[in-house]
Every structure is written in C-alpha cells, then in structure tokens.
Amino acid sequence: MFNGSSPNQFLxxxxxxxxxxxxxxxxxxLGTYLAALLANGLIITAVACHHRLHTPMYxxxxxxxxxxLASISTTVPKSMANxxxxxxxxxxxxxxxxxxxxxxxxxxxxxxxxxxxxxxxVAICRPLHYGTLLGTRACVRMAAAAWATGFLHALLHTxxxxxxxxxxxxxxxxxxxxxxxxLKLSCSHSYFREVGLIVVSVCLxxxxxxxxxxSYVQIFRAVLRMPSEQGRHKAFSMCLPHLxxxxxxxxxxxxxxxxxxxxxxxxxxxxxxxxxxxxxxxVNPLIYSMRNKELKDAxxxxxxxxxxxxx
Length: 311
Known about the structure:
two-stranded antiparallel sheet; mainly alpha; about 75% helix
C-alpha cells in the first residue's frame, strides 16, 4: 500500500457500514446531485439564451452556477461510487485532484461573491456610473481574476500539501480529501509550511469578508434613504439572495473549521462537511431564483420551450 514515505491510496470515511444504509446514502446523494445539476444547468442555459439577462449581475450569476456545478461534481460522485462498490479507497492522484479542485472552486467562488458584492454596491450606491464601472470588459476581467485567484491558490496549496512526507497511515476522517485531514498524516514538522499558507489564506478570506460587509453597510444606508417603497423593495430583492448565499457559505465554513474540539466527532464532522460542500451548490440556484422575477420568467420560458420540443 505504501510507496516510500507516502501511501499509494487513502481510505475515506464511510457514511454507513451496512449495505442497506450504503444504498440509502447513494440514493440521497444521487437525488441531491441530480437536483444540483438540473438547477444550475437551467440557470446557466437561461442566462446564456435570454438577452434580457445579459447584464453584469446575471453574468456573474452564470459563473457562480458553473462553480457550484463543478464543486459538487468534485466530491459527490466519488462518494456515491464508493458506497455503491462498498469501498473507501481513493488513489493518491485522485486525492490530489480533489484537493486541487476543491481549493480552486471554493476560492474562485468566494472571490466571485466578493465581486458580486461590488456589483450590487455600484448598482445601488452609484447607479449613474454603473455602465462605466461594470462594462463588458470590466466584468470579464473581474470574473477572470476570480477564476485565476482560485487556480493559483489551489496550485500553491496542493503542491505544498503533497510535497510533505506522510507516514501516519492513510486513513482520512472525512468523506473526501481535505487538507487538514492529510496534514494529520505527516511525519515531521514540515507541515508548518502548509499551516503558514493556510494562515495567509484565512487573512485574505477575512479581507474579502470585510469588503463584503462594508459594501452592504453602504448599500443598506443608500436603500434606507430611498423615498420610494417600491425602490427599496427592488433594491432588497436584488441584494438579499446574494447576502443569503454569502451567509450560507460563511456560516457552514465557520462551523466546519472553527467548531470547538470538545464537540467534534466523526459523525458530526461528516454532517458539517455535507453542509458546506454539498448543500450550498444545491440550494444556491433556489435562493437566487426565489425572489427574482426576471430569472423565474426566463426559466419558465425555457422549461416551456423544452416541453414543446419534446411534444
């Protein structure tokens, strides 16, 4: 199983030991995965096909749906396959790929949510400059910067994590490959390099969070000064879905990584991991479409068109 100081494969934590519960886990994850694929796929298609949705807000929403679709595809299919085949194994290269894509997609999504906060700020606080500050080129550059930030962040962490010698076994206390679990297997103090990188990453995440908070402080001030109740309602409808998605991401991430060790347990770790890695990609499309009339209309027309073509 081992090659030198590193394992050839890792053993992930299983959700269940009995065959019946394994099949139940497979069914639940399959339903969630298909729902996430359908919901995010519909948003991507609706935004791409309807010219009324060719605005900066929906441009960024399309990228968010792409990231959510890719994110849930990084962990859930492997977990389903393992339950179906009654195994816990993942190859060394497969584990490295999971770590890379999770860092890549989560970092890019958080960067994109920061950009979307700026988009909402300009739309509400500086509407006369909206076309200038968020033109087509500016939007493409900001989206590209979010993807590039995620890629570089993932490359740095993945290369550093898998350059550390591992000699504490190959069992990971998680249903996917997670850096914190891999570092527990290191056999020297060399893991402090990765801890240092994680500290830097946390500082950057905190900086983005402060930017989002300050943006919304300015937004709410501007909204409360609006004389029209209809204008306030429209502004809140534009901002609340984004705020809900950010809150979901931050709250589940905080619960996962900052919960007290005294309440930690394998079962709780699995539940929390599902909350921050599986739930957001599945519910984000619902959050964005629930209070958005334009998006609901576009989705309705798209579904009607598909049904007509099938007839």
